[in-house]
Design a protein that fits this description.
Order of helices and strands: HHHHHHHHHHHHHHHHHHHHH
Largest sheet: none
Shape: elongated
Number of helices: 21
Number of strands: 0
Helix content: over 70%
Structural class: mainly alpha
């Protein structure tokens, strides 16, 4: 492990041109490049969908007690705060979309954020402890290497001492290689001192030339092996990994002794050339990253311009504001898909984008505030209409009051919306007042009002008899049901307020009986009536004529009633839940009346058929 990332020449290359040495990246540049690249590369292989996944990975790193990899920690921190920003932005947008003012929004402190901060603090503490232990070890290494230098210095005093202690010298070299890094600020000085006294020792060494040549040859073999590895790094797919491996090769290269003097320049130039290829690829890699960051910046600036170009004067309705809000949210989603710009520019462009979005939602909040005032004005106008309608609901001047209520309904539709919390109740009061009048008018126009109460009691009695048959359906007969239905049809009107309820009770029990007998409701009713018509023939044609006239009057009355309901429906413009319910109730009433109208029409046809039958018989006899 070398003490520094700096690519320094071996002892025999100390005279190399300084400009050549400067081609290699400085320790700071190399470190920044590694820290910048590692998170991005890890982001390609590991993705996190939410903040809890990031926290779980950090917890696993913390439990390993190894301090974790700085590149991965930086990436996890970046991803967490990116997700954190997205979550808070979404919460703020939802708050504003719900009608809140953006300046009133306050982010909540979430448990996942507290967990993240706690675990990161624990990891930082462990990394600090590991770094402290590493610095202490470097200090011990410095002391050990200084002692080796001092001993070699003692061995170079005389040629005799150098020859006598050659084995000890080789042991000192082996110990040097085994000792780890020293403090960075001392690394170059210690290395130069070591190389100085090693060369001095070799210069004093008076061993036979064969042994010296063997040592040079061994060093040459070791350095050629490192050069071949450096040259192979040109094909390494991972540019950053290749650069880091080159640093390790340079550290090992420095630990190898000298080669023959005539080969020193050649061997160093070859190693330097291989290093230049790797360094160039490393530089091009980060230039490509820079180009991508510049492209990301342009895309983000375009999104900023898109939000800043919103024409607020053209947003004059709820629908337009909601459509524009949807577009802004889509732009925000698109922003999240774009990668980071440069570290310096990314914060600036994000602040610009955030201000543009905040300006939009603030303007939207102001618009809704203005609209709220208009809603209150509309509220007062509709309250006045409700009071006028309620004042007219008990009037018996049918035509004049009906015209006034219809005019009030037109005014109601012309007035805009009111606050939602008052809308349903106000609409219910208004429609109730109108319905009260029109239902009273319909009731006043019904025939034979004096007999309605008696008819009510008769129909209640018929319903009671039908229920008795339904309870003992096994012994009931269809003839009994038909007879009761015929009596029901013969009974006239009942009070208007009881009509729907009474008819519903009658239909429920009749349908239950017909279900038991297996025949459709309409067909059974018609068959019962046809039987009653045939029975009435015995009483003479005048009886049938009177019955037909009565049914024709009922038929016309039902048509008029349907027309009244349909007129009311034309003036109802339900915009609330209660209004929809009212419209649905009226529509159901109309549908029932139409069914009754169809049945009356069939009955009239049946009477006509019975009235024509005797005349046809007489014609045949003639």
């Amino acid at each position: 492990m070398t003490e520094t990332n700096e690519l320094q020449p071996a002892p025999e290359e100390l005279a190399t041109n300084a400009a050549e040495v400067q081609e290699q990246p400085t320790p700071q540049a190399a470190t920044q490049a590694e820290e910048t690249t590692e998170p991005a590369e890890q982001a390609e292989t590991q993705t996190y969908e939410d903040r809890q996944q990031v926290v779980e990975r950090l917890r696993a790193i913390d439990e390993e007690n190894a301090g974790g990899d700085k590149g991965e920690l930086d990436q996890l921190k970046m991803v967490f705060y990116k997700l954190q920003t997205a979550a808070k932005t979404a919460a703020r947008d939802a708050f504003v979309a719900a009608g809140g003012a953006v300046e009133e929004w306050r982010p909540e402190i979430e448990e996942v954020e507290e967990q993240f901060k706690t675990i990161m603090a624990s990891i930082r503490q462990k990394r600090a402890e590991i770094a402290e232990a590493a610095e202490k070890q470097k200090a011990d290494n410095l002391q050990a290497k200084t002692a080796i230098i001092d001993r070699i210095k003692q061995l170079v005093t005389t040629p005799e001492e150098a020859n006598a202690h050659f084995d000890e010298f080789k042991q000192l070299q082996a110990q040097w290689r085994e000792i780890g890094a020293v403090p960075a600020e001392k690394a170059t000085e210690v290395w130069k001192n070591y190389q100085l006294y090693v060369e001095q020792y070799y210069d004093l060494l008076k061993l036979n030339s064969e042994a010296r040549e063997y040592d040079f040859k061994k060093n040459l073999t070791a350095k050629e092996r490192l050069i071949e590895q450096a040259e192979a790094l040109a094909a390494e797919a991972d540019v950053v990994a290749a650069f880091n491996k080159l640093q390790a090769l340079h550290a090992e290269y420095k630990e190898i002794g000298p080669v023959a003097k005539e080969l020193r320049d050649e061997i160093w130039n070859r190693f330097k050339a291989a290093s230049t290829v790797v360094n160039k690829r490393h530089q091009e890699h980060f230039e490509a990253i820079k180009a991508q960051e510049e492209d990301n910046l342009k895309q983000k600036e375009a999104l900023c311009e898109q939000v800043e170009a919103i024409d607020y004067a053209a947003l004059t309705t709820f629908a337009q504001w909601e459509a524009q809000t949807k577009q802004v949210l889509e732009v925000q989603a698109q922003w999240k898909t774009i990668g980071y710009a440069s570290h310096r520019q990314n914060a600036v462009v994000f602040e610009r984008f955030r201000q543009a979005c905040d300006h939009f939602f603030t303007a939207k909040s102001e618009y809704f505030k203005t609209v709220k005032e208009e809603l209150n004005v509309n509220l007062e106008q509709k309250r006045q209409l409700v009071e006028e309608a309620e004042a007219l609901q008990d009037s018996t001047q049918w035509r004049q009051t009906a015209d006034k209520l219809i005019q009030l309904q037109k005014q109601w539709r012309a007035i805009g919306a009111v606050p939602r919390k008052y809308s349903d109740a106000l609409w219910k009061r208004f429609t109730a007042a109108c319905d009260h009048f029109f239902e009273a008018r319909n009731a006043a126009n019904a025939d034979q009002k004096s007999s309605e109460q008696a008819n009510l009691e008769q129909k209640r009695d018929i319903i009671a008899q039908l229920r008795a048959l339904a309870e003992d359906a096994a012994s009931a007969t269809i003839e009994q049901v038909r007879e009761l239905q015929a009596r029901w049809n013969e009974v006239g009107h009942v009070p208007f307020r009881d009509k729907d309820r009474l008819y519903k009770e009658y239909r429920e029990v009749a349908d239950e009986l017909y279900k038991h007998f297996g025949a459709s409701q309409a067909r059974r009713r018609l068959e019962g009536f046809q039987k009653s018509v045939r029975e009435a023939v015995a009483k003479g044609e005048s009886t049938l004529s009177r019955e037909r006239e009565r049914m024709q009057r009922v038929f016309e009355a039902r048509k008029a009633e349907i027309q009244t309901y349909e007129n009311n429906l034309n003036f109802l413009n339900a915009k609330s839940k209660s209004g929809n319910t009212l419209v649905a109730d009226v529509q159901r009433k109309v549908e029932k009346l139409r069914e009754e109208l169809d049945l009356l029409q069939n009955k009239i046809k049946a009477i006509d058929a019975e009235m024509r039958a005797p005349k046809a018989d007489e014609a045949e006899q003639e």
